[in-house]
Design goal:
Rossmann fold, 263 residues, binds nicotinamide-adenine-dinucleotide, alpha/beta, single chain
Length: 263
Amino acid sequence: MGRLDGKIAIITGAARGTGETTARFFADEGAEVVVADIRDELGREVAEGIGDAAHYVHLDVREPAEWQAAVETAVERFGGMDVLVNNAAILDVASIADTDPALLREIVMVNQVGAFLGIQAVIEPMRQRGGGSIVNVASIDALEGSNGVAAYTSSKWGLRGLTKAAAVELGMHAIRVNTLCPGGGSAEMTRPFVEAAIERLQDRTERLPDRAQHPFHRGSELADFARAIVWLASDDSSYVSGIDLTVDGGWTVGKVEPGAPFS
Ligand SMILES: NC(=O)c1ccc[n+]([C@@H]2O[C@H](COP(=O)([O-])OP(=O)(O)OC[C@H]3O[C@@H](n4cnc5c(N)ncnc54)[C@H](O)[C@@H]3O)[C@@H](O)[C@H]2O)c1
C-alpha cells in the first residue's frame, strides 16, 4: 500500500530537479500526478517515463488561465485534486545595487505570485474532495539572509508568509498548507552562479563553504527533499499545517568547528 494511494497531485516545476524526483516518488507511493512546467519537452519525458499515473501539462505559474486549465486537466483525467506542490522557481545572484528591477519582478512573480495563484486555483476542487495538502517549496533562504540573493530571498520569505496565512484561512476546509525549506536542490539551478563565484574567489583568500563543516559531512540528494514532500502530502502529516519543515541536514542549526572536539 502506498502512502499516497488515491491522491491526485499537481507538481509545478516538475520537468527536472526536485520537482521531477518528487513526481517519481509520488507515483511510487500510489499518487496520480500532473507534471507541470514550461520546459515542455523535458516535462513530457518525465511524465512518459512515469507512465499512466502521470500526465504533462504546460503551466506557466504566472498565468491564472493556465492554472485553471491545469486543474481542469487533473479533475477530468484523474478525478479530482488533493495535493498541490508549488515547487517552480527561478534564481538570480546579484548584489542589491546590481539587481535588475525587471528580473526582481520576474522572480517574485514566479516564486511567490505563482504559488499564490496556484492556491487560488485549487481551493474549490480541494474543498469538493473534503480537504487537501499544499506544499510550498521555499528554501533555507526563507529562514535567513545572505549576500547576493536578496531578490530570491525576498520571494521565498514571502512564500513562507503566504503559507502561514493560507494555513489559517484554509484550515476550516481541511486544507493543510506547509513550507518545505530545502538546503539544496538541482545543480542546474545554481550551476551558472557557482561557476561565477569560484571565478570571483580565485583572487581572494576566502573559499566556498567546506563540506567538512556540514553536520552530515555530505551534500543533499533530491530524494532527501522528495521524501519530506511525500510526508507533507500524505495523511501521515494529518494535523500538520503552517510549519516550516527545514530539510538541510542541520546546516542552518550550526557548522562543525574545525579543530574543536567532536564525537
Ligand atoms: N537548487 C538549489 O540549490 C535549491 C536550494 C533551495 C531551494 N530550492 C528550491 O527547490 C525548488 C526546486 O528547484 P530545483 O532545485 O529543482 O531547480 P530547477 O531549476 O532544476 O527546477 C525548477 C523548475 O521550475 C521550472 N520553472 C521555472 N519557471 C517556471 C514558470 N514560470 N512556470 C512553471 N515552471 C517554471 C523550471 O523549468 C524547472 O524545471 C525551487 O523552489 C527552488 O527555489 C533549490
